[in-house]
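Contributing new records

If you add data, match the layout below exactly. Sequence lines come first and carry their own label; structure lines follow with theirs. Keep one chain per record. Anything else will be rejected by the validation script.
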Amino acid sequence: MARRCVVTGKGTTAGNNVAHSHKKNRRIWKVNVITKRIFLEDENRWVRVKISTRALRTLRKKGLKSAIQEHGGDITAIAPKKYVGIKATAPKAKATQAA
């Protein structure tokens, strides 16, 4: 999986290492991403997210849902409910065609 924060969307960036003589060499900067279990109080469940340490500070201050909404994300993409035990709807009955 890519090194990307699910809350802010920050990922690996590239640029130049510039020496004193202005000689440029390509380099990359990696995001400090950790896997963290976070408790969603209103849904009463734990979610496992890959989050940058910078976003984790924001998350502790504001909460998961408000931090994700602030960055334009969607909680359902990060924490799908398919593993929680939410009952799926019953399959629709097939309609038979009378000839």
